[in-house]
Amino acid sequence: MEALLHYAWQHRLFLPEPMRTVDGLSLEIIDTGLHNHDAGPDFFNAKIKIGGQLWVGNVEIHERSSDWYRHGHETDENYNNVVLHVVRIADCTVETANGHALPQWEIAVPETLTAQFEALCTAPHYPPCRETLETIDDFARKAWLCALTVERLEEKTERILYWLRETAGDWERTFFITLARAFGFGKNSEAFQLWAATLDPQHMAKHRDNAFQIEALFFGQAGLLDAEATPAHQHDEHFQQLEKEYHFLRQKFVISPISSSEWRFLRLRPQNFPHVRLAQMAALYVSGHLSFDAVRECEELDELRNKFVFNTLPYWKTHYTFGKKEEKSAKKIDISKSSSQIKNADSIELAPSCEPETPTSEKKTRRTAHRGEKRHDACLSRNSIDLLFINAVIPSLFAYARTHHDDERAARALEWLEQLRAESNATVRAWHEAGLTARHAADSQALLQLKQHYCDRKDCLRCRFGACFMRAAHR
């Protein structure tokens, strides 16, 4: 309810004059001030006349007067410049840390506004403001989506800059960790990030020309070569060779793996198993394309996409994990078709949803299983590559541009998002059904930001769509 009081104060949506303080003094609000979303008073530099005297200072808003003491403001010197305490119910007097008794005003919010706010917060459908969308013009929609896209990129930039600090300014290592997190595709993002942080670039560089050794290092540090992590009956020749090689590398570099318990397999498509994704990362690293310098210099999206073309070791064309070779299949299997289910459709990194329609020529070459064994494409699908661009590559380029004040590169990152297809997930579909269709990945990222940081938090009053919904109550 306090959020509604903030909204009513900011937009002057309280009942009209005459206005008086709790003590009976006349009150005139000249300027409501600047809304503060950080620590400290709620509104800065408001201009108010109390009893004919002009005051310039801060305003604090609470549901009840007693909240002033509940929040400890009476001992906080940051609140000494408050000139008015706005409350819905004045249940006590209040004082600042310097002993000044604050004038208080009981704000009266129109019932129609309260009802509209409650309708937003309790709507049984998503999005809760769907009835209002058709009244919002196209320019306003696009402007809000654009702002949300940048907001989401800024949020991802903060995470990237955290790792940049942790790696002492090493952009290559920061990019590797960021890309690894994206390789988790939601469910295993944290595990991949934890794993990547254990890898020393110098150790990897010494074996970059040996795909098998890199794979041994990657799987070993992931804890997946631990005898307890893989049942004995899955200890096939490839596993045993990797285990032996990792034992040598572990002693050579004096390193320790993460726990195999970090990895999640439940409700994952086989193509998303950690083993497959680690094999792909190893192949990508060995290809020499997993370089932030190389990625940063790309000027076209297609040029960037070509850097994600690689071949895994042949073993992974017939395996999703150790020891479990794909069996023969008498049926024709369209292995290019993936599940339409999405893991945690509203998370910051989503698992790949429906794979894009595969060209007919590709279907013919991929539809029929090879004689004697079932094979699958161990390379990244176009959809997976797009998600890596959305969640790692483009945010890294944007973060780099921000730190180097490179407006041209920042604009390029945004343009690339607009060139990628919109993601397909529950959130995007819900907005489409409500009448707002994501045109590209920038829009789908904006809608995810909207849901996670506004809708889910019931922070509708900071949302431009929510504001339009509220305005309908006081037209």
- Measured by DSSP, the beta-strand proportion falls in 5-15%
> How many distinct folded domains?
2
Number of strands: 6
Helix content: 40-55%
Helical segment count: 19
The end-to-end distance, rounded to whole angstroms, is: 21 Å
Shape: elongated
Rg from alpha-carbon coordinates: 28 Å
The stretches of 5 or more residues where confidence is low (pLDDT under 50) are: 328-372
Mean pLDDT reading: 87
Structure described in brief:
The chain is of the alpha/beta class and 475 residues long.
Could you walk me through the main structural features you see in this protein, from its secondary elements to its overall organization?
44% of the residues lie in helices and 8% in strands. The protein has 475 residues and is of the alpha/beta class. The longest helix is centred in the N-terminal third of the chain and has 29 residues, at 138-166. The chain is elongated, with a radius of gyration of 28 Å.
Topology readout:
Layout: H1 2-10, E1 27-31, E2 34-35, E3 43-50, E4 53-64, H2 67-70, E5 82-89, E6 104-106, H3 111-122, H4 130-133, H5 138-166, H6 171-183, H7 189-197, H8 201-205, H9 211-221, H10 237-253, H11 274-286, H12 292-296, H13 301-306, H14 360-366, H15 382-403, H16 407-419, H17 426-434, H18 441-455, H19 464-471
Parallel strand pairs: 4-5, 5-6
Antiparallel strand pairs: 1-3, 2-3, 3-4
